[in-house]
Amino acid sequence: MKLAASDFDGTLFIEHEIAKETVEAILSWRQAGHKFGVITGRDYGMLLPQLKFFGVEADFSICNNGAIIFSKNGTVLYQAKIQPSILYDLATHQCLADSLHVAFSQADRTFVYQAKAGSWIVREGRQWNFPVQMIEADKISSLRDVQQISLGFSQLEQAAQAVLQLNLLFGDKVQACQNRGSVDITPLGIDKSTGIEMLLQMKQWEQADVYVIGDESNDLSMICKFGGYAMASARELIQRQAKKVLFLWEVC
Question: How many alpha carbons fall within 13 Å on the CB side of residue 11?
Answer without folding.
Answer: 27
